[in-house]
Amino acid sequence: PNRDGKSSETGLLKSWPAEGPPLAWRGTGAGIGYSSFAASGGRLYTIGGRANREYVIAFDAATGKKVWETPIGALFSNDRGDGPRGTPTIDGTRLYALGGSGDLVALELQTGKPAWTKNVLQDFGGRNISWGLSESPLVVNDRVLVQAGGPNASIVALNKTNGSVLWRNHSDEAGYASAVLATVGGTQQAVFFTAERALGVSVRDGRELWSYDKVANRTANIATPIVADNRVFVSSDYGTGAALLEVTSSGVREVYFTRDMRNHHSTAVLVGDHLYGFSGSILTAMRLADGTVTWRDRSVGKGSLIYADQRLYLFSENGVVGLAEATPAGYREHGRFRIEPGSLPTWSHPIITGGRLILRDQDNLYAYNVRSQ
After folding, report:
1. I want to staple 88 with a disulfide (CB 3.0 to 4.6 A). Which of 52, 97, 136, 304 is the partner?
2. 179: closest CA among 124, 223, 133?
3. Which of 336, 340, 338, 367 lies closest to 351 in space, CA to CA?
4. What's the distance, CA 154 to chain centroid?
5. How many C-beta neighbours within 10 Å does residue 137 have?
6. What's the CA gap between 49 and 40, in Å, rounded?
7. 373 pLDDT band (50/70/90 cuts)?
8. Residue 278 contacts by C-beta under 8 Å, 6 or more apart in sequence?
């Protein structure tokens, strides 16, 4: 719910049987793509593609049956896998989603009926990035913030009710990361990670509050910034690294820069005073305050992770799923299993909802019971 990779669910299994947790259901119909799920009101929402179109799709979380689907735009095509990448954002009775080709839509949550649609690349003169627009729109108060990547419209804010433009600013190429909200000195700001830099912008008018470019690479900035009070942790791979920044009302200060945490497509999670994340292909525990690495382990192999009820849920890009303690004392695994993936990497990130671990591999959906009896 807070865009930080942490679930508030409790009462979950602390270890798994040798064969893994029981499968509640398995379904199909998600289409092609790497989007993950948003969960609300007993439903799962994602984006998938087929036959040259992308669709927002709603599934029943109890059964995996499709409830509705709504076409949103042209299928994004790429040699690393076709289809959408971003996860829908739910706000009240509406869902906001950004397709791989720039189609931004607001849909009624219950029915999938469009409230408004626009293509941010066409409307703001941007150009799509190499592996397709990938972010989840940030909904704040009465507005939706998203990277459009256009001249003087790198970041835009739209009225969430009707899609009208509230402001447009900056001229960065779009990045792949989703924005997060921070409040510093009483000012509400959105922290973005574009192709060129991390920056904080005013939610109200889009003006730049601070900027930091050392952590940006020129290939793909993907991981979501992590906000802890007035500190922001930003990381990227391709040999680059990470930085902890202290944000004040007058700007930003680098606390440290490190090459020991290089998040590729997966964001680290902050549990207590430690970060847990994949640095390249190595699962790494790092103390946030000073960047000290407390352990490293190959774990399930390069992948993504989330946190719930004292455990890290790990999902490798080869279909291996693991359960490990979130502790700086060392890597302690409490079970693993594997789904048989198709020809593409399992890059859709896992979620937990209603006591179930939900996984996606392209068209295939899996729900595992991880609640203790």
Report:
1. 97
2. 223
3. 367
4. 19
5. 27
6. 22
7. confident
8. 263, 264, 266, 268, 284, 302, 303, 304, 305
Total count of residues recorded for the chain? 373
pTM over 0.90: yes
Separation CA 161–CA 188 (nearest Å): 20
CB 173 within 8 A of CB 220: no
Cα distance between residue 201 and residue 347, in whole Å: 29
Q: In this predicted structure, what is the pLDDT of residue 30?
A: 98
Instruction: Give the whole-angstrom CA distance, residue 139 versus residue 19.
Output: 40
Radius of gyration of the chain (CA): 19
pLDDT in tens, 8-53: 999 999 999 999 999 999 999 999 999 999 999 999 999 999 999 9
- Measured from the Cβ of residue 230, the count of other Cβ atoms closer than 10 Å reads 15
Strand partners, 228: 231
Structure tokens at 237: 């791979």
Instruction: Give the DSSP H or E segment for 245.
Output: strand 241-248
- Separation CA 266–CA 303 (nearest Å): 7
If we measure between CA atoms, which residue out of 242, 237, 244 comes closest to residue 220?
237
Q: 227: which residues sit within 8 A by CB, 6+ positions away?
A: 4, 180, 181, 182, 191
Distance CA 276, CA 292 (A): 12
Contact 32, 363 (CB under 8 A): yes
